[in-house]
Task: structure prediction
Amino acid sequence: MGALSIRQVKKTYQGNVNILKGIDIEVEAGEFLILVGPSGCGKSTLLSMIAGLDTPTSGQIHIADRDVTYAPSKDRDIAMVFQSYALYPNMNVKQNIAFGLEMRKVPKGEREEIVARVAKMLQLEHLLDRKPGQLSGGQRQRVAMGRALARDPKLFLFDEPLSNLDAKLRVEMRAEIKLLHQRTKTTTVYVTHDQVEAMTLGDRIAVMKEGQVQQLGTPEDIYARPATRFVAEFIGSPAMNMIEAQRTADGQSVHAANASGIDLPLTETQRNALPKGHVELTYGLRPEDVSLADNGLPGVLTIIEPTGPETYATVDTGVGKLTIRIPGALRRSVGETVHLQWDAQKAHLFDAGTEMRLA
Amino acid sequence: MSAPSTLRTPWLPKLVIAPSFILAFLFIYGLIAWNGYLSVSASRLLPNYEFAGFDHYASLLDNDRFRVAMINMGIFGGLFIAGSMALGLLLAILLDQKVRAEGVLRTVYLYPMAISFIVTGTAWKWILNPGLGLEHLVQQLGFTDFTFDWLVNPDKAIYCIAIAGVWQSAGFVMALFLAGLRGIDDSIIKAAQVDGASLPRIYWRIIIPTLRPVFFSTLMVVSHLAIKSFDLVMALTAGGPGYATDLPATFMYAMAFSRGQIGLGAASATVMLATVAAIVVPYLYSELRAKK
Amino acid sequence: MSSTQPRSFTFQRLLLWTVLALFAVYFLTPLYVMLSTSLKDMDQVRGGNLLALPHGLNFEAWAKAWGTACTGIECNGLKPFFMNSLMMVLPAVAVSTAIGAVNGYVLAKWTFRGSETMFAFLLFGVFMPLQVVLLPMSQVLGWMGLASSIWGLMLVHIVCGIPSTTLFFRNYYVGLPQELVKAAMLDGASFWQIFFRIVLPLSTPILVVTLIWQFTNVWNDFLFGVVFSGADSKPITVGLNNLANTSSTVKEYNVDMAAALIAALPTLFVYVVAGKYFVRGLTAGAVKG
Result:
């Protein structure tokens, strides 16, 4: 059995609003699970239920084989880092970290030891006497993590902890969180709306939309074989290029919906995966899978965005605007005609109606 | 934001607030109901729980003193509310102009709220004293024909109460408006300045409309003060001369506690309640709705 | 607002200062009149006018107001009334504030179904005209045996103070992040531990506002004082009113003014010392109609 078991958890508000429509996730001990999705998908609600701050309308939650669905938070042996850190403003860093231990009646000597150890791990030793108001964003974040670490719980919960930090700090703290997890090997559930955090931190990722898990898998799985159109567009930046296409009932090839003269290449496997008859589908291409060549799909460069290590370019083609990624700098200018080529194997096919992956 | 719904003792918050709620229910609504019953009972000097129908209410309509009280309520209420609101707003706008002595001035404008209406009434009674007060002062300054006997004039005395009332409350209104003004986002003002609006225009077209919620909540507070006015009248004129400056509050007190007309007093209190409720309840309702 | 204009001595600034100063005079004049009159003897009062300075500092009127002025039948000055007020106000303020804090905590941080409605009902108590509970309240106090005692008056002030204090604390606590409570719950704190260890230490601004507000209102109250007190338990507002309105002897305006000042001193003192905290609290949205 896993360290955390979420079974058929549903949540409805006021009779009609379905926030969670049946979530099933098994988390292994020591695993770092990411819950990612757009606002309103239910990830924070699910986290609240794991934390014991909310109860599901139906379903169960087990932590380390104990049914905790209705158990109060303090009985669940979990620790949480909030988006706003929720540090107690009237206490200094030391007292903040020790508060949970105090509530659990840990004797003073032991408390001091634990606080010292945690402070050392997070480099907070010189800040112990300061109040949260006197700390920077990054320091507050570390104190919040310290408070969670001090409890040595069975489960760590993170609720978008890096959202309030500036870009540079976010990258640094991401690395710290990853290092910390490698050291402590505590089972972790981490909620974010940032797909980069999801990909870099997670052992497994649950991509959520409108109260359901669209796909649960490793970062590689999710990136290479997205199960739905939503997952394909959500993960990866710039987003996957989507071309609306169709294959007529008697046709062999797939052509773009708005440009019937242009055929989109398919492999044998992909062709076989298509259902019989007329098919409306979406043909997806990741920007890095499309390259500039001497011949291929013609188009005009409309936007060029150099980022340093690579360049994103938007090309206006017969099938629509496509974004491509090119390593290094692009020695072309806006308005030039270019040709695009790609390997059919790299294409992702989704049913236009159900948005599920076809091939 | 709803509370964390799992607590080891989920009944505790409800238990803690229950006594206050029960107390409030009993002492507010229970007593209001009781008062209501008294107003339809045959009570005179002592409570008499025999049902007397709406006799007392009917006699209120005929009662000259009550009629005067209600008219005075209108005059005084209108002047007091308009005066306090206008003066308070003006002072708030003036003080908002980054004046260096703001702290001191604010203290000066606001201190009258700290003293009792009885003290205010006593002081202004002296100031408006026909023989030795304001009249005397102005006469001594040379205007020997100046008369200011409003305080003892049945038709004019009510204005004196309004004057004293505005003096007391304008500062408080100012404080509320000032807080509202300070809460306005600076960037909106700056945008208007960049757009070329002059200062008075900015005030008129942007700031004052933004103050609408503050305006209404302040209006509530001031109206409430106006309807409750009892202390001020008792100290300044004791309802006199005769009952020319009676207000519903003083009428109620007189009937219930000095004239041995409990039923009538209770009826007048119920009328006061109805007046307040008519204003406050819709306001509270819309406020609590909005806060959701 | 005029931050973009140079702070030079323009005509506009001069006008602004003049108007502000005139209003300051308007507000201060009654205080000056009270003070100066209280320091004169009756000859000066009759001889001079409202604004005339006293001929020296004559505290006779003050002594008389405190100790020997007549307030109806008795002539013991305001001292006994002052003591009554003191004994009544301090516990009433403390208790109503404490209860308001706990109530506000529950209503803001531990909402449950119906808690908003409860709050709305409680809120009406802030606005209702007190006349409407006067008669039944005196009956109730009579039954409890508290009809003309200081305890009865104290009880009334506590009960009628709870809606206001609850309003202040609840509005303030709503501004405290709910995540603090959640974090504390996860840390294992109980309902009361969260209140005493986290919420209360963060309540200083609103505590000051509420204490000042309650003290001012209860000390300055007249209506309850005149209805619910007995011969020995009348508060200072009643004493002052009686003193200033006794028609028996010759009017001694200087004593009246001294008495008014004595009655006003405690609240004025609180205001001058702690007033800026009060305004700060108002600005923080403590009193929202």
